User: Fold this.
Amino acid sequence: MKKKKRFALNQESTSYLMMAPFLLLFSVFTVIPVFATILISFTNYNVLETPEFVGWQNYINLFVHDDIFMKAMSNTLVYAVITGPLGFIMAFIVAWILNDMRSDFARALLTFIVYVPTLSGTAFIIWKLIFDGDVYGYANSFLMSFGFVNEPVQWLTTEAYILPIIIIVQLWMSMGTGFLAMRAGFSSVDRSLYEAAAVDGIKNRFQELFYITIPAMGPHLMTAAVLQITSMFANAAISENLVGSPSTNYAGHLIIQHLNDYSSVRFQRGYASAISVILFVMMIAMNKLVLKALDKVGR
Amino acid sequence: MSKIKNGVKRLFSNRTKTVNRSKSGNAVIFIFIGIIAAYSIIPLFLLVSNSLKPISELYIYPPKWVPINPTLDNYKVLFSLMSSTWIPFSRYIFNTFFVTIATTVLHIVIVSLAAYPMAKHTFRGKKLINTLVMYSLMFVPAVTDVVNYMTISKLNLINTYAAMILPNAYYTLGLFLLRNYMTTIPTSLIEAAKMDGCSELGILRKVIMPMAKPAWLTLVILMIQNMWGQANNTYVYAEKFKTLPAALSQITTGGLVRIGAGQAVGVIMLIVPAAVFIVNQKKMVETMASSGIKE
Assistant:
């Protein structure tokens, strides 16, 4: 009895030892920084001077005096509300269709085709040629040859088009790891469930989808949602490279760019931390909300 | 026409022989997947095609889908620009390979050491660590940039390889995927190895890792994708530590003449991760099968 207890303790310390390298890096670069960021957000830290406690001032400035932040906030919300669900549904339908295909080759090929835009952080520069502002752009030449427009549209510098273009390009890059999780989710649904369902009177593939497949792959849908939401918020490169930073009248300005602007251009790190905290809270809230909703669907 | 119909029918015939698939449903699905595939592939096709155009063809109306006189000039321009860089271009290539490989190896070691106890042992604080890892998947790393910069500079790691490697090596998605995969390995195997006198490290090396191969190979792929394209590392200013994407993006921001070269860069940066993905697609999907979140 005594011996067994010592063994258990030993195993516990072995566990901690094995996890030590991970826990060290994870604490130093993720866990502690999150709390430190919250603290710094209440100071006026600017790299050169010693930080001074300023209370809620940074947050008050953000919400009351910083019009560009409010613009970034509303852009980000519009962007997230459109890109998130659309990207998720698109990935879901594609994964569903692929799962239904009989040919392994066609499935592998189509998976590759939809996944490949997410593979490179630089390939999206082609959209710059597609939405080029002169007649040599593909979008302009296409519209002009059909007579929809008479002169080239300045896609990347016209306020009204900037956010939609960012959304189009982000959707193009949205079939990432989350999509693979969905594909795996479909293929891991127990086949015998379908046979049982057919006996129970399920008539078409839509009924099959809603009564069998979706409830069975709930956990995968959750993973896919989390991965997609996070990658959607992380992508500042599209906006920076296609429409510039800042874009015309900040029409494509997202919170993450506002953050980069204040932390690595203006060096107002206290202010930047406040932006980080708001972004952090927004992302956790959005993820939690989506997980709750998906959990309900899964039941 | 009937040939196409037959093809479509064969493509979607019910694999499980359960519910009948309607023909009109097949047609809708076929059109939908066609549109999505076109949306994905046409820009990439244009990327490759434009990288093969001579400069004169980049400015003709209407723009051509396929180059009239395909040429490798844009790629050659890259090479000649490479020979005129401040530091030898081979240094950028070396840096990219070194940082990618070092981060990937370290990542696999760190994460597999942590994933095994997380999947198979019981200890105090496990639930807390699990929760923290879950939460870390829910926000962008940029949130902690301000503090991480301070940490890196306090540790005197600005302008070192370590500054590029360490903040990436513990990638929590990797831990999450590997941990989930390892929980599906039967515990009886571990107990049998223990009976044979295997140490915990021995079990990890001889029993767990061979069985979790699809999972850690997936992490290798994700990490290569991640590191290969990483262009702007904020902790490195010295030119001699910069990587390929950073160098290439400097080249391509050099004005109009370089638009074709820019497309060539896009193609080059895509080839490596695309090749890696093609080879390992099956393993990735297999790994993601155990990736579900349980609330």
